[in-house]
Automatic annotation (TrEMBL):
Main location group: nucleus
This protein's name: Protein PHOTOPERIOD-INDEPENDENT EARLY FLOWERING 1
Species whose genome carries this gene: Sesamum angustifolium
Domain Helicase ATP-binding: 1-98
Pfam families from the UniProt entry: SNF2-rel_dom (PF00176)
Length: 98
């Protein structure tokens, strides 16, 4: 449902993002896989890894259209909160993964 909403926003309203999706670590790969399956036109940034790997992923992410959707975990949003606050997000999606 969420992916179809973001696809609708992009195709019908021209709102491509950036969107932030915060998920439990256990479903992070599922989200990425579903985006690749249903919306391959979206540029996805999976924000995960060591501090060094995350720093590399952030290079250039303040440029327009560097990605459409960022998928990360609750732990990393808290840990890297200063970085996430600098980005102007269109939509924030929180997955509880019941």
């Amino acid at each position: 449902m969420t992916i179809s909403l973001l696809a609708h926003l992009a195709c019908e309203k021209g709102i491509w993002g950036p969107h932030l999706i915060v998920v439990p670590t256990s479903v992070m790969l599922n989200w990425e896989t579903e985006f690749l399956k249903w919306c391959p036109a979206f540029k996805i940034l999976t924000y995960f890894g060591s501090a060094k790997e995350r720093r590399i992923k952030r290079q250039g992410w303040l440029k327009p259209n560097s990605f459409h959707v960022c998928i990360t975990t609750y732990r990393l949003v808290i840990q890297d909160s200063k970085v996430f606050k600098r980005k102007k997000w269109k939509y924030l999606i929180l997955d509880e993964a019941h």
